[in-house]
Specification:
Blueprint (H helix, E strand, L loop, with lengths): L2 H6 L1 E2 L5 E2 L3 E7 L6 H7 L6 E6 L6 H8 L4 E4 L5 H11 L4 E4 L11 H9 L4 E5 L6 E2 L4 H18 L11 E4 L3 H4 L8 H11 L4 E5 L1 E2 L11 H23 L4 H9 L7
Helix pairs in contact: 6-9, 8-9, 9-10
Bound molecules: guanosine-5'-triphosphate and magnesium ion (MG).
Pfam family, one: Glycos_transf_2
Organism: Streptomyces coryli
Family: Belongs to the glycosyltransferase 2 family.
Length: 265
């Protein structure tokens, strides 16, 4: 192997070296106490960390800079985790994007497994707490039930085979963003990604993942409110898919996609 080719590859484990740069996108709203744990768990071979700040009123931004002077801090344009991720994806310069929460519930060491799946041929590496080897310490029984029902609905309506719909630990090639065309604000963002990935027939590899309890602070998720947002997005996507299959013009499809979600409730 010539020197120039060898330099293009970075060893990421004993058995794997990769060429594509990896961006880690972290949505964070008042997570100053959790960031030290999250940043510490990130592998040293990643290309960049993009932290999307949700107008934090604590020292989230300062702590991120202290921990990692090269961190890219991005303000989100809209409101909610979805708009934060969309801003972060736009700002990411890597060929591979990994999404990870800032509450200390995800282990950055798992990034190696996600990235390995992508370089081995997957388009989308989807974290799953319910695939064999995965686990969660963080979900209440009611959340587990809601997630299971919504997962089954998406599988049925979109021909997917997901085992965990509403999970924030995922990775994908940046080129997939065009097909996902994300347009949402809140916690429904992962559902929308999963549906669009299934509709685009991208190659999905589920990655068993262990979710821990958030270390400090309180959750921003409200089970009923956010469960309904997820349900609305599923129904909205189903309706626009039906219109597409009926061969309706593109303007009608765009209007259906932009339609207020109350029509679907
Ligand atoms: N930038 C930004 N980040 C957000 C926003 N809402 C939530 N987040 C972040 O998104 C991640 C997930 O939010 P959580 O509140 O932990 O929600 P969750 O993980 O679904 O719920 P729990 O399992 O109870 O922790 C965390 O890193 C939050 O800081 C937001 O509006 N803007
Ligand atoms: Mg959390």
């Amino acid at each position: 192997m010539s020197t120039s080719v060898r330099q293009m590859y970075r060893p990421v484990s004993l058995h794997l070296a990769i060429a594509p740069p990896v961006s880690v996108v972290i949505p964070a709203m008042n997570e100053e106490a959790n960031l030290p744990y999250v940043f510490k768990s990130l592998p040293d071979w990643i290309h960049e960390v993009v932290l999307v700040d949700g107008n934090s009123t604590d020292r989230t931004v300062e702590v991120a800079r202290e921990l990692r002077p090269d961190v890219k801090i991005i303000p989100q344009t809209g409101k909610g985790k979805g708009s934060a991720l969309i801003s972060g994806f736009e700002a990411a310069t890597g060929e591979i994007i990994v999404c990870i929460d800032a509450d200390g519930s995800a282990d950055g060491e798992e990034i190696l497994t996600f990235v390995s799946a992508l370089v081995a041929g997957a388009d989308f590496a989807k974290g799953s707490r319910f695939a064999e080897g995965g686990d969660t310490e963080d979900m209440t029984p009611i959340r587990k039930l809601g997630n299971a029902v919504l997962t089954a609905l998406v599988n049925r309506k979109f021909g997917a085979r997901y085992s965990d719909l509403c999970y924030g630990y995922n990775a994908f090639w940046k080129r997939c963003l065009e097909g996902m065309a994300l347009d949402c604000n809140g916690f429904e963002v992962e559902t929308l990604m999963n549906i669009r990935v299934a509709q685009a027939r991208l190659k999905v590899q589920e990655i068993p993942s262990k979710e821990f309890k958030r270390i400090h602070g309180t959750s921003n998720l409200r089970a009923v409110r956010d469960g309904l947002r997820v349900l609305r997005v599923i129904l909205r996507e189903k309706r626009s898919r039906r219109l597409r299959m009926q061969g309706r013009p593109a303007e009608t499809l765009a209007a259906a996609a932009a339609e207020p979600s109350r029509r679907a409730s």
